[in-house]
Amino acid sequence: MSEYIVKPERPGGFLDFLPEDYLAREKMLQTIENVYRRFGFDPIETPCIEFKKTLSGETSDTGKNIFHIKHTDDDEPLALPFDHTVPFARILAANPYNARSKSGIRLPWRRMVVGPVFRADSPQHGRFRQFYQFDADIAGTSSMIADAEIIALMVLTMDELNVSNYRIRLNHRKILNGLSFLCKIDDRSSISQKIIVCELMRILDKLDKIGRKAVFKELTRAPESPDDPAPHLSEDAISKMDAFLDIKGSNDQKISTCEEVFSGIDVAIEGLSELKEIFSYLSAMSIPLTQIEIDFSIARGLDYYTGPVMEMELTDAPEFGSVFSGGRYNNLVSRFTGKELPAVGASIGVDRLFAALNHLKLIDRSKQTVTDVMIIRIAPDHDADYLKMAHDLRIAHIRAEVCLVEDTTFKRQFNYAISRGVRYIVICGENEFMENKVQIKNLSTRQQVEIDSNMLVDYLMKELAKKTENEPTSEVATAS
Amino acid sequence: MSEYIVKPERPGGFLDFLPEDYLAREKMLQTIENVYRRFGFDPIETPCIEFKKTLSGETSDTGKNIFHIKHTDDDEPLALPFDHTVPFARILAANPYNARSKSGIRLPWRRMVVGPVFRADSPQHGRFRQFYQFDADIAGTSSMIADAEIIALMVLTMDELNVSNYRIRLNHRKILNGLSFLCKIDDRSSISQKIIVCELMRILDKLDKIGRKAVFKELTRAPESPDDPAPHLSEDAISKMDAFLDIKGSNDQKISTCEEVFSGIDVAIEGLSELKEIFSYLSAMSIPLTQIEIDFSIARGLDYYTGPVMEMELTDAPEFGSVFSGGRYNNLVSRFTGKELPAVGASIGVDRLFAALNHLKLIDRSKQTVTDVMIIRIAPDHDADYLKMAHDLRIAHIRAEVCLVEDTTFKRQFNYAISRGVRYIVICGENEFMENKVQIKNLSTRQQVEIDSNMLVDYLMKELAKKTENEPTSEVATAS
Known about the structure:
The structure is a homodimer.
Chain A: H1 19-38, E1 42-43, E2 50-51, H2 52-55, H3 60-63, E3 78-79, H4 85-94, E4 109-118, E5 130-139, H5 144-160, E6 166-172, H6 173-182, H7 193-204, H8 207-220, H9 235-245, H10 251-261, H11 266-284, E7 292-294, E8 308-314, E9 322-328, H12 334-337, E10 343-349, H13 350-359, E11 373-375, H14 383-395, E12 400-402, H15 410-420, E13 424-427, H16 430-435, E14 437-442, E15 448-452, H17 456-467, H18 475-479
Parallel strand pairs in A: 1-4, 6-7, 11-12, 11-13
Antiparallel strand pairs in A: 2-3, 4-5, 5-10, 6-8, 8-9, 9-10, 13-14, 14-15
Helix pairs in contact in A: 1-5, 5-11, 6-11, 10-11
């Protein structure tokens, strides 16, 4: 058919999931989804292609790594979303609630979404260029109850994934905004204070990667041109910043020291007060506060955050970076409506988390296949009978397949069943057909029983229900 | 934040799924997936971006509507897959089984995949440009057992979706290949017989749309240039084609008449014999043959089919076209390996099927939300207590949310709970807090009970387990 051979390659940064990986990841996703739904987050889905204008408007560090679609007949250029938050904002803006027709989205709205997002990094970079994000967001309330629930969601999700060693770092954008007053950053003739503060955040976000000294060097750099947003901090501002970054102690101590540092700067005091409110809610829910740490150094890159921001890392696998992060963003919908709409949420980097949990051996990789029963074909001319057996089992919701190995010796078929990880094989040769019997072999215990062939379905239903009491794998086990 | 307003638009041909649609479609997908897994199809996932070279090589009618990614740093151009079959072939080619290391894909391989595919149609066209396909394929066997199982899969899937009015049309590419002998199509100096036969198939595929007369007109058209693949059939060939398309009667009658028409043309006789074998297997499985009809006019556009081909339409909604179709393709992997690998499979056009079943009112749209219980906040200063209630319920796997409506009058919160489709509300005012009581109202029956607040979790667990006996919606109902 083809005149030339194409190499069966996959571009760098993209993943295939073969059955063993798929089933392991599916179980992790199912666990996460169950927790999200317990919080009342309703699922939605948005497409893998949006108008470029919908996605753009971000800070340069996300704007530049968008995959763009080559020219189409559309009025506007198309692109692939780099997160689920921007399409979420589009949906909110496009579906305002109409009290008369009772249509549209009624606020507050809790929604979850899981699916791929795309980052056009260089293929040499070794980063995922497509990965799943699993988001939960609450739109339409500025109550800190919502922010506390997002943190509770992070904690409960880790509990259900049997991950106990994690750390959630918490900060508040209003405190960081207070820094502009502390450091006396004003509008410059050609560039607004807001842009300079954004640049300040972007530089602070690098603290973990490049260290305080390098960050300070960037912060003091003089602008090279009128539109260079370099914060250009004074020596006095840097010493205040140093004192700020030196704040240590328990969460309570950090908050009270910070209240002193920012005394008289209303916006920061407001942020600190909101953090205190969040902690009171977390205590009421008996959330273990030892794993939640105020860290004034985290800023998070995306410029849409306006309130609390949080990042979770796994303390046994810090090299994987932040696996679950989020924050409050009250401005994002205004891109589409011109009006603020308060929202808060968090997102799991699913494929990063999966890689980290795999590394920590916390992923259940026990399932290689969905098939529970394999029908061995050893009697020639009985193919129709073997198919009938499989069909009867399937009608009874048992996962069964006819062994289609081309070499129909028993040994080959047996080895195939073993290598596939199937749990039972059904053996029926000429003798068994004559006597209306069938042999069933349990491949874990290697026990073999002979039963009347009309008992096949009943027998396997009972066996599978028994086997799956602890871990449901078949519909048989969950149908009751 | 943004200086200008972006319209919250979605490009044409792309869909959003809001919770009610999402939950209805999720249920349909779960039903399909359960059936697929009963046949032993193991799930995989491949990325939304592939090398363009992997996807190309198809006939012009699929090649031209691929979404291409704008230039990246990759060595090869990138594009979005238009189906799951080509990536499946890539995976098969890239992971040959290694008996020594026991790695790679052991054949035969049954795999399923569900996810988005992309077609770069014009946005004005009104077609989906992104839609889910749900595929099941068996690679590594040429046995007609596999082809029969694919048809059984189609039938069982419809049974589980409660769809009884459908028709599966079945043909065999080898019979169509026999047409080239019947019509005496030979190599021409500048163009091979194979290309001309492909063109013949492409034209025949339009029978349903444009009718026999228009098809014959296209078939007799003389080539306009040396590389024009026009089949250019003679009058004699057209009359044979006419006789062939006239074949009528039961499936058995069609097969025997066809055997006469193609007497002496081996390839067609082989195809007919394979169809007979498939029917013998379908009979053994008691598949209702009245809904399966041999139709020599269906060809299916994609040129990778080599054996049986099948298409299902819903007889009550034929305007939606084919919703489930497939066939045998023994050559596709050779694009990557140079060697044939037999494979057969079928694919559901998920979003088309969902639209059709919606139209037929066969979609369960009873769920608007995942939330079962809503905690109403009527006592000021008790937010931490309300959060604790929600948290206790969530720990017990009950789906609960705290009502975050900004106006905390009872009436507003009650209306919100009603409009969200929640099943129970929990009411606890100052009095109840003082007496350690709590009110629970069932929003379907409007019954309200007062219980001790420490019984809240137990009471709701029992209520939800009762309510969900028939239709599990909460983990509570499925956890046992």
